[in-house]
Design goal:
The complex is a heterodimer of chains A (231) and B (790).
Chain A lengths: L4 E2 L7 H7 L10 H14 L3 E10 L4 E2 L5 E2 L3 H6 L3 E10 L3 H11 L3 H32 L2 E7 L11 H8 L7 E2 L5 E2 L3 E10 L33
Antiparallel strand pairs in A: 1-2, 2-3, 2-5, 3-4, 5-9, 6-9, 7-8
Chain B lengths: L2 E2 L5 H6 L11 H4 L1 H13 L4 E3 L7 H4 L8 H16 L4 E6 L14 H18 L3 E7 L2 H14 L4 E5 L13 H10 L4 E5 L4 H14 L4 E4 L6 E3 L2 E3 L4 H14 L1 E4 L7 H12 L13 E4 L4 E4 L8 E5 L5 H8 L4 H12 L4 E5 L7 H13 L6 E4 L3 H10 L5 E5 L3 H14 L2 E4 L11 H18 L6 E4 L11 H15 L4 E4 L10 H15 L3 E4 L4 H13 L7 H10 L2 H4 L9 H11 L5 H10 L4 H21 L5 H21 L10 E6 L7 H12 L3 E4 L6 H10 L4 E5 L7 H12 L5 E5 L5 H6 L4 E2 L3 H13 L1
Parallel strand pairs in B: 1-10, 2-3, 3-4, 4-5, 5-6, 6-7, 7-10, 13-14, 13-20, 14-15, 15-16, 16-17, 17-18, 18-19, 19-20, 21-22, 21-23, 23-24, 24-25
Antiparallel strand pairs in B: 8-9, 11-12
Helix pairs in contact in B: 3-5, 5-6, 6-7, 8-9, 9-10, 10-11, 14-15, 15-16, 16-17, 17-18, 18-19, 19-20, 20-21, 23-24, 23-25, 23-26, 24-26, 25-26, 26-27, 27-31, 28-29
The chains are: A alpha+beta (231), B alpha/beta (790).
Chain lengths: 231, 790
């Protein structure tokens, strides 16, 4: 079991940052501002995460941890319907970037602060990708294929699951905490489960975008045109 | 000569009675006959090398079973069990697997601890009489480096290094086969290969990459295909005959050591052996004739036949007070910033110098190298004269570094060259002898020969060198440049190795140094400079290098040169605008729409000079512009970051007006209290709303995030607020909106309420009793204006 993994932030994907900033369709936005934001996020991001593996009962939708956790939400259960194990992960890029965003905003650099926030989101997702890759390899070596990440708050998986999920991931070891209103601190943090399904099956859900599980239809970062009722 | 490894040990052990949760390696001690029997089966099926049952026999893995003090016992027993089966013709490879932990800075295992763990195991295997060491299934190059270093110290026997790669062709921590082969060959691996994780089909391209990147023999031990879970058990589906089909392809790709990993059985090895018998030895392509430097995940080649490589010189505290102070204080943010910006400016290698007087240079170098290895993927040059700092840096670096520098001074040769060999680093050879700096080119060549001869004695090879031509200042010696150029020429004729130098010293003490440096750079490039050490932010140097690349044939049709030139033209230069005073308000309006916050300042100043009032400017230009932007946003023609740039421009315009006419107050459109509700710590969206409202003439009192309802009521009353804006980002905090609105009403507050935030909907806002629901910041401004009219 991997107690702590510090991810490398060798670059911040500028196109993802553009998308998170709601600029996917903006053709002539300053490339330099975006590059500067990505560079600063790279500089200030301290990407680290933890993960743990558990057996999963896909009939009852229960994570078979020492203190079993029943998952509430039809979509999370549907997503995990063929999984017999899962990884629970928690990832953060720390608080420094957050402080910088606040500082830029207070200086009146509103647009740049927004871009930096978007670059921070990209950074934490990229860190989660690295951890997902390590989990994927671990899964493959014992005969499983992994599904994409699914986080509390996606679809109908209630955000109140956040404290339990963070605890299962042992996210506190990466310096991640949760408020009574279920927000992660530092803010640029993610928890998620990754389902393990047997063998190399062509699982339909694997290829679905994360956006397809999200109810925020007006989100400026949304990928493609997805009808949530189809999920 | 081919060698056939054996196949999987774990599945054979399970068949022989290993229980789940039981330590596989303890069977070496408790049931050695079982282990000997498995080895015998593989030998009977054609294995020429058997692997000891010691994959997890290191103290970290054994600790899971409470056996960490039994490393020697278990490894010795394993070798004994193998020997009982091997006879005289079969070789025994001592298997060394991963610790299961990541080494710092990726994880928490200290490099030296990992080294000690591997050393203990390998020493035991060596003492027990293995023929070679097989380090296998490693997913991080730094762990492999620790194991290989331990092996090279613990034994003189051959060492095989096998990494596990993912389906994307990289290890979990990002190393590609080319980079791995270069790092491991330089550190003295005898055989380099890949095992586990993938089947033969997926490993084929990896074998190809390994083979073309080094001269070592290549080994491969695939799984029997990609695993599947059937009835709760992991099954590797590839049959022996299917696996045998891949053998000729793996050999053609360069492999000469072939065996199996997970899911392979004696029958698989038999099939592999049969397939090997009909194959000829592979014809190996020679690796590139170039100096290869690597990071963990990228290789950079330097050669007279390749494009010029910039070595960025900026991470050097000499003469830079702030950088020196930061390093001294253990603050590496400025070092990291220099690194990122140099890479962005085109540096392909970064020089790292921690030469601050009075600090622990080894500790600083270690920290710098660790921090940078997590941040940039360009290779690093460790620039120090301190042996301890050099070793700390080399040890911490998960790549093949360049040592800057090795002179012909005896203490350097004695202390630096063995470290270069040990850690697989390349060396920058500096022609300085105990007699000092040789003045002439011929003397410099003689000194370089001394360094190269000493390097050869410790085992460094032809592609390990970068030769410094040495630059002295032309202000002190009119022949300085000539001698440097002559040195470059002689280096090329005598050695053929790539060359480097720190260019800017040439112009020391002279005016217009940039011109001098640029011209000298061009002359040097033409004479044979391959990797200048320079400041990548120097525009003249960059332009010279760009033109030089085209002239030296490294830029087809000058395409890169042309595109760089085009990118360097700023839009302002290309479109000079003549501003007509009558249209000044239109220009201000356009500047706000375009988000040109610097350009708007002189426009506003001019408008005021020409007698326009602040009201004219505000209403006819600024407000009109924000209306334009709002409409463009509403119709999807512009996006939030652009709206915010316009808001910044508007702020800039207001500030200018206030500076020139401090007594003129701008009439407020109304007072708005803003708050993110109790329990919610998100505030970027709320801050955006505040900025937009302020720039649209509202007086905004921003209470921040996680605000108590009582504080909202007090602020609304005390400030006679016209509007209260509330936001919540999460379902868990959304009910606080209801509570706040109800409390405002219960306390007789007449302010209108606008609510918003990611999870809110118009329906929710309505049932909570809000006067309006805003989907975004622009909508909030429009709603606020509407509410003020009511």
């Amino acid at each position: 079991m991997m107690p702590l993994f510090n991810a490398q932030l060798l670059s911040i994907d500028i196109n993802e940052t553009r998308r998170y900033a709601g600029l996917s369709k903006a053709k002539d936005f300053s490339l330099k501002l975006l590059e500067d934001a990505c560079l600063e996020a790279q500089l200030l991001g301290q990407a680290k995460g933890t993960w743990q593996l558990y057996d999963y009962d896909n009939i009852t939708g229960t994570v078979l941890s020492d203190k079993p956790l029943a998952l509430n939400g039809e979509k999370i259960k549907a997503y995990l319907k063929e999984a017999s194990k899962l990884a629970v992960l928690a990832v953060t890029i720390g608080e420094e970037l957050e402080k910088a965003i606040t500082e830029h905003f207070s200086k009146g650099n509103y647009s740049y602060a927004l871009l930096l926030d978007a670059a921070g989101t990209t950074a934490v997702e990229m860190a989660a990708d690295q951890i997902s890759k390590a989990i994927g390899q671990q899964a493959n070596s014992i005969g499983y294929t992994t599904l994409t990440r699914f986080s509390p708050g996606y679809g109908d998986w209630d955000i109140t699951a956040q404290p339990d999920v963070l605890a299962l991931a042992k996210g506190i070891e990466a310096g991640i905490n949760v408020t009574t209103s279920c927000m992660l601190i530092p803010r640029k943090s993610v928890t998620a489960v990754i389902g393990f399904v047997a063998g190399n099956k062509d699982i339909n859900l694997i290829t679905k975008e994360k956006c397809s599980y999200c109810n925020q239809l007006n989100c400026v970062s949304r990928k493609g045109e997805i009808n949530v009722s189809d999920i | 000569m081919f060698q056939i490894f054996d196949g999987a040990m774990g599945t054979m052990l399970q068949q022989a009675g290993l229980q789940p949760g039981q330590c596989p390696e303890i069977m070496n001690v408790e049931k050695p006959e079982v282990i000997t029997n498995i080895h015998a089966q593989y030998i009977a099926h054609g294995a020429t090398i058997i692997e000891t049952n010691t994959f997890g026999a290191n103290s970290i893995k054994l600790a899971h079973y409470g056996l960490s003090d039994k490393v020697s016992l278990i490894n010795t027993a394993a070798v004994k069990a193998a020997k009982a089966a091997a006879g005289i013709s079969v070789k025994i490879a001592g298997s060394v697997g991963p610790t299961g932990k990541f080494i710092t800075p990726l994880g928490e295992l200290i490099f030296d601890e990992a080294y000690e763990v591997f050393f203990e195991q390998i020493k035991a295997l060596d003492a027990a009489g293995v023929d070679m060491i097989l380090i296998e299934t490693i997913i991080d190059i730094q762990e492999m480096r620790a194991a290989l270093l331990a092996a090279k110290t613990a034994t003189t026997k051959p060492v095989i290094c096998q990494l596990s790669f993912g389906s994307d062709g990289r290890t979990v921590t990002g190393t590609d086969p080319e980079t791995a082969a270069i790092i491991l060959e330089a550190m003295g691996a005898d055989v380099i290969g890949a095992n586990c994780s993938l089947g033969p089909a997926q490993l084929l391209p990896i074998v190809k990459q390994l083979a073309k990147s080094c001269s070592c023999p290549i080994s491969v031990q695939p799984n029997a295909g990609m695993p599947e879970l059937i009835n709760g058990k992991t099954v590797f589906p590839m049959s022996p005959s299917e696996m045998a089909v891949w053998v000729p392809k793996l050999i053609e790709a360069g492999a000469t050591y072939i065996g199996g990993c997970c899911g392979t059985t004696p029958e698989h090895i038999s099939a592999v052996k049969s397939a090997v018998l009909s194959c000829a030895l592979p014809v190996r392509q020679s690796p590139k004739e170039a100096l290869a430097l690597t990071s963990r995940s990228k290789t950079v080649y330097i050669s007279p036949t390749l494009p010029t490589v910039i070595i960025g010189e900026r991470i050097n505290p000499t003469g830079r007070k702030q950088l020196a102070a930061d390093i001294k204080a253990g603050q590496f943010l400025s070092v990291k910033k220099e690194a990122l910006e140099q890479v962005r400016a085109g540096a392909k290698v970064l020089d790292v110098n921690m030469g601050v007087p009075g600090i622990d240079q080894a500790a600083a170098m270690k920290q710098a190298i660790q921090e940078l290895s997590m941040l940039v993927d360009v290779p690093l040059a460790i620039d120090t004269s301190d042996t301890e700092a050099l070793e700390a840096g080399l040890k911490a670096y998960p790549g093949r570094a360049l040592i800057n520098s090795v002179s012909a001074e005896p203490e350097r040769l004695e202390s630096f060259l063995p470290l270069a060999k040990k850690y697989g680093a390349a060396i920058l050879c500096l022609p300085i002898s105990p007699a000092g700096v040789p003045k002439s080119a011929v003397e410099r060549v003689e000194v370089i020969k001394i360094i190269l001869d000493a390097a050869a004695l410790v085992g460094l090879r032809k592609n390990d060198f970068l030769l410094d031509a040495l630059v002295m200042t032309v202000a002190a010696d009119e022949q300085a440049a000539q001698q440097t150029l002559a040195t470059l020429k002689l280096y090329r004729e005598h050695f053929g190795y790539p060359s480097t130098m720190g260019l800017s010293n040439i112009s020391f003490g002279l005016p217009n140094r940039q011109l001098m440096n640029g011209v000298f750079c061009a002359m040097s490039l033409a004479t044979g400079l391959d990797a200048p050490i320079l400041n990548p932010f120097d525009k003249t140097m960059q332009e010279t290098l760009s033109a030089g690349a085209a002239l030296l044939g490294h830029d087809k049709n000058g395409q890169l040169y042309s595109s760089k030139y085009a990118a360097s033209l700023s839009p302002i230069q290309t479109a000079p605008v003549v501003i007509n005073d009558d249209d000044i308000l239109a220009f201000i309006r356009q500047a706000v729409v375009n988000g040109e916050k610097e350009a708007v300042i002189p426009l506003v100043q001019r408008a005021l000079e020409k007698g326009f009032s602040s009201v004219d400017i505000t209403e006819q230009a600024l407000t009109a512009a924000m209306n334009d932007v709002g409409q463009a946003f509403g119709s999807g023609r512009c996006f939030l970051p652009q709206v915010l740039l316009s808001a910044e421009t508007m702020r800039s315009a207001f500030t200018t007006i206030k500076e020139i006419l401090p007594s003129q107050s701008i009439i407020s459109n109304g007072t708005v209290i803003l708050a993110t509700v109790k329990g919610d710590i998100h505030d970027l969206g709320k801050n955006i709303v505040a900025a937009l409202l302020e720039n649209n003439g509202f007086t905004v009192i921003d209470l921040g995030k996680d605000v108590d309802t009582d504080d909202i009521i007090d602020a609304a009353k005390n400030n006679k607020a016209d509007i209260v804006g509330l936001c919540a980002l999460m379902t868990t905090t959304m009910p606080q909106i209801d509570i706040a609105i109800k409390a405002l009403k219960d306390n007789g507050c007449a302010a209108k309420t606008i609510v918003g935030g990611a999870v809110l909907t118009a329906d929710y806002a309505q049932q909570a009793g809000a006067d309006a629901y805003a989907t975004d910041g622009v909508a909030a401004v429009n709603l606020a204006k509407d509410l003020m009219k009511q």
